Model the fold of this input.
Amino acid sequence: MPWSKTLQRWVSQAHVWLYRRAGGRLISMGHRLVIVNTTGARSHEPRTVPLVAFPHDDGWAVVAAAGGDSSPGWYHNMVANPEVFVERDASKNRMVAHEAVGPEREALWRRIIAEEPSYASFQEKTERVIPVMVLEAAPVGASTTPPSVKSDT
Done:
């Protein structure tokens, strides 16, 4: 594993640790962080990643920028296994992820870059359309057991 990936995973793990120790009161880029627990797309192992989240309806919107020409692992995990658990403050909520497309994505993207202009420069550096994932409350009566914790970026 290249040193940059190793460093990125270490920093991600440190963010998760700090977030939990601070009771969910950490911010990044001036925005609230959430901890998202996913299931690995290929490994089927539990994965945990801190993400900058933008409030959207009764859930969140998260941007799969990754700073390059490929989407981050957590994006692929959400596409393959949309059931996630989101930690915010001291609560864990089961949510379902879907990729915003068409008018939904365009409206979210405009709002996101208005709140955080740096995402516009991320888009300018790649030919791919940077995905925006929407995390919404899961249906009533669904599983309430989060996956075990394992850091992933």
